Amino acid sequence: MFGWDVYRNVLRPGADDKTVLRVSQATTIGAGILTVFLAVKPPDYLAFLIWLGIGIMLATFAVPLLAGMYWRRATREGALAAMACGLGSAVVVGGLSFFKILTYPIHFSFYALVISAFAMVAVSLATRPTEKKILDETLTGWFIQPR
Question: Rounded to whole angstroms, what are the CA distances from 69 to 43, 50, 117, 119?
Fold first, then answer.
């Protein structure tokens, strides 16, 4: 991707295919060497960065995904609010945890997940519901609907 997207499109627009291929190969080898080096002697904050990434994904995507599938009152606006609040709060709460400004008894992503869920419910209830026809076509909440 670096060879085609960055090298050929930005750095050297007139580069031929063979040169771009060699740049791509060199970049892949360099990334592999860097990865091995970091795996042998990882930085102290590497574990935090991994958990930060997992926490951000959880807080950003879990609530809108689950609510969108199983809660018929969930709305597009609620999902967007949940994603924005989840992402923002995960970064803020994670940063406070990383810099030891605040310590938490539970992983910081839990708090961001709760904020995301609150935003999903509050905004979904405050906005116009999704049309019943669309919910029926997408089988939203199918297993919890009365038959």
Answer: 39, 28, 14, 17
